[in-house]
Amino acid sequence: MTDTVSPTTTGAPAPEATGRSRRVDSDWVRRNGVFVALALLLLFNLVFTDNFATEGTLRLQLVQVAPVLIVALGMALVIGTEGIDLSVGAVMALAAALIPLYIGYGTGLAIGISLLAGVVVGLIAGVLVAHVGVQPIVATLGLMVAGRGVANLFGGQIKSIRDEGFRELGTGSILGIPYVVAIAAVIAVIVGLVVRRTTYGRQLVAIGGNKLAAELAGLPVKRVLVTTYVVSGLLAAMAGILLAARSQASDPTKLGLLMELSAITAVVIGGTPLSGGQVRILGTVAGALLMQLITATLIFHNIQDSWAQIVQAVIVIAAVYVQLGRGTTRKSRTT
Amino acid sequence: MSTTEVDPATTNSPEAAMASRARFAALVQRQGAFAIFVLVMVVASFSFDSFLSRGNLTGIAVQASFLAMLALGMTFVIMTGGIDLSVGSVFALGGVLAAWGSQHGTLVAFALPLGVCGFIGLVQGLVIARGGLPPFIVTLAGLLFARGLLLLLTDEGAKTYKVPAGSAFRKLAQNDLLGIPYPVLLVVLFFAIGALVLHRTSYGASVLAIGGQEDAAELMGLPVARTKVLTYVASALLAGFGGIMIASYTSSGVTILGVGLELEAIAAVVLGGTLLTGGAGTILGSLIGVLLLQVIKNVINQVGSLDSDWQAVVSGTILLGVVTLQRWLTRAERT
């Protein structure tokens, strides 16, 4: 099940030529590389990592990846429109910073206000991008800087959150699955369905593919763009709330720091090109899991943080290079 | 909108109104940051007695000099239509290498960081220009790589190398000429060279042509790949040199520096009127952008009752305000 159509498969079924089969192979790698890599790394850990296949270890991995995944899902939509959202980390901090201020009035209200803050930041980003025409990277960069500042103003220093319902959200589980993981899984399914089955999803992909054509075809480009940034802000706020619930504290200076980069990495490794026009939700899920598993593998084998970062850098480049196997033929290669 | 300075021959003709409006738009695009900078300076000098004192102004200039080095390289990168997210990490790495190198002589303190940082820039440039990978992803990986290398060198960030007391290397950033600190003089010198390179060399012309339209530049026979590689090398070298300056200034290789500095550099460049779409920009504008950000920091620090977190809020808001204004005016120019 793929949501993209590649030129090699739409053409008339030519007799098996050597060049063509190689093209198909590289295309297959581009599409499924992230799943293969994930499977290989899982296999490696099953064989070489002690106590890897235990419930505790796997559960911890999933709990840790959940917030990144939630943010990455929103990011995938934004990148699908040929945009980028650098404000997600700051939105997480802002959402978490608001929780201790309003938790006294009820858990639901506090969460609602936090989510609303995410929506507001997303709305500002969307209006700047869609209506004013500011480049996504600049608009969300400004919001990232300002948002982190506002989060610090609200939150000040680290605040612990004492609330039974909130604690339950972060640490409880349903049918043995932690709430955090269940929420991330449900969101992934919803976003996946929205991209494939709804008008909004198809419009989003069309806008990312060719904005001018989408506009000429009469698609509501501005509305779709604004909605997309609002969704990204909302999901980032949700991730921030879940992180705060897990640690039962909010630390506006640190929470969500560099999250925008992790989310973008997960999306790109998952096969969604930065040039827009495609959204690969399953790939994004696999990308987030892969990055989490790489970090975890390096920790399991006592490899220092320094090497972990260097390895991640190499993997990101390699992943994008593989995916561009086709992209370089589109654009004349410079000699 | 009526205008006051129209040519009498074409009074009231829509072309004339449009032309003068376009001129006004271009002026704001280029000088918007400068106007705000002057405004902030004037207000600050009336509000705080000590603001215009020699010590305070020198402090602002020295503090701004490190970011200025990064912003200069970033200006060229953005003018080619690219982006360099690695400069913050490369800056920190350069500082650590310089501090370590200074224990083996002043020459090593310069050669080692410039060599390593230049090499990182070279690899990034080659992967971007020859491999055709998106600059955003490549330099994101570069950010991780340089940070990883830094942690590796410093025992996971636990070790701070000191510049030996009495080392000539300390003079670089701690001494002054006729009362002007060396870092400030170096920034002025480098920006002058940068402006000359941009406007008087074929390399500079290539940079602007590539950013304007890469395909056209290639068809014209311009050395697109070489120009891009050179630009990323220059950006990394300038970031590394900024690191050398801060190592000399603080007499040590501080490992926690530079996080998020790449975004500050991008903000300064955008504030200065360089378009992120490439093809246009001013070197002087970037310097003004850097100074504006630094003056805002200084002013907010002077207001004792204000939390320093306001600095981020104000910087982000001004960035968004300026780009919104730029967009509105350039749109007015086109219609």
Q: What's the gist of this structure?
A:
The complex is a heterodimer of chains A (335) and B (335). With 335 residues, chain A is an all-alpha fold. Chain A has 15 helices and four strands.
Secondary-structure map:
The complex is a heterodimer of chains A (335) and B (335).
Chain A: H1 7-10, H2 18-48, H3 55-80, H4 88-102, H5 107-132, H6 136-155, E1 159-160, H7 164-171, E2 173-174, E3 177-178, H8 179-197, H9 199-209, H10 211-216, H11 221-247, E4 249-250, H12 259-269, H13 281-300, H14 305-323, H15 327-330
Antiparallel strand pairs in A: 1-4, 2-3
Chain B: H1 14-47, H2 54-79, H3 87-101, H4 106-129, H5 135-153, H6 171-174, E1 176-177, E2 180-181, H7 182-200, H8 202-212, H9 214-219, H10 224-250, H11 261-271, H12 283-302, H13 310-334
Task: Characterise the protein shown here.
- The complex is a heterodimer of chains A (335) and B (335).
- Chain A is mainly alpha-helical and 335 residues long.
- The longest helix of chain A has 31 residues, at 18-48.
- Chain A has one domain (52-323): ABC transporter involved in vitamin B12 uptake, BtuC.
- In chain A, 74% of the residues lie in helices and 2% in strands.
- Chain A has helices spanning 7-10, 18-48, 55-80, 88-102, 107-132, 136-155, 164-171, 179-197, 199-209, 211-216, 221-247, 259-269, 281-300, 305-323, 327-330, and strands at 159-160, 173-174, 177-178, 249-250.
- In chain A, the strands form two sheets. A two-stranded antiparallel ribbon of chain A has the order 1-4. A two-stranded antiparallel ribbon of chain A has the order 2-3.
- Chain A is globular.
- Chain B has 335 residues and is mostly helical.
- Chain B has one domain (12-272, 281-334): ABC transporter involved in vitamin B12 uptake, BtuC, CATH 1.10.3470.
- Chain B has 13 helices and two strands; from the N terminus they run H-H-H-H-H-H-E-E-H-H-H-H-H-H-H.
- Chain B has helices at 14-47, 54-79, 87-101, 106-129, 135-153, 171-174, 182-200, 202-212, 214-219, 224-250, 261-271, 283-302, 310-334; strands at residues 176-177, 180-181.
- A two-stranded antiparallel sheet of chain B has the order 1-2.
- In chain B, a hairpin with a 2-residue loop joins strand 1 (176-177) and strand 2 (180-181).
- Residues 1-10 of chain B have low confidence and may be disordered.
- Chains A and B meet through helix 6, helix 12 and helix 14 of A and helix 5, helix 11 and helix 13 of B.
